[in-house]
Design goal:
Number of strands: 0
Distance between the termini: 52 Å
Order of helices and strands: HHHHH
Shape: flat
Structural class: mainly alpha
Strand content: under 5%
Largest sheet: none
Oligomer: single chain
Length: 95
């Protein structure tokens, strides 16, 4: 019985060996030319550039939102005086 449970795992592992890398992941890692090659295998030639530009645009937007998010994620909630008390209670509750 245990051997039968391993069959789907082995098949999935074998299938993963032949899967191309994600174009989005390649752009995020700084390899847009490799992303273009992968997209050219998966999409018609006339749609490759448009999709790559869309991925790069998303990446830049994501990067911009991440840069602004660091300072406001924690301390942005403290600007509202109604939210300060729950933060203070949560901070000092463990004493």
């Amino acid at each position: 019985m245990l051997g039968l449970a391993a069959v789907p795992s082995v098949l999935m592992f074998a299938g993963m060996l032949f899967m191309p890398e994600s174009p989005r992941w390649l752009v995020f890692k700084g390899c847009p030319e490799q992303a273009r090659l992968v997209l050219s295998k998966l999409r018609p030639a006339d749609k490759v550039d448009a999709e790559l530009q869309s991925i790069v645009k998303d990446f830049k937007q994501h990067r911009r939102s991440q840069l602004g998010e660091c300072s406001t994620a924690v301390f942005g909630n403290l600007e509202n005086h109604q939210k300060r008390k729950p933060f203070a209670v949560a901070d000092f509750d463990h004493f």
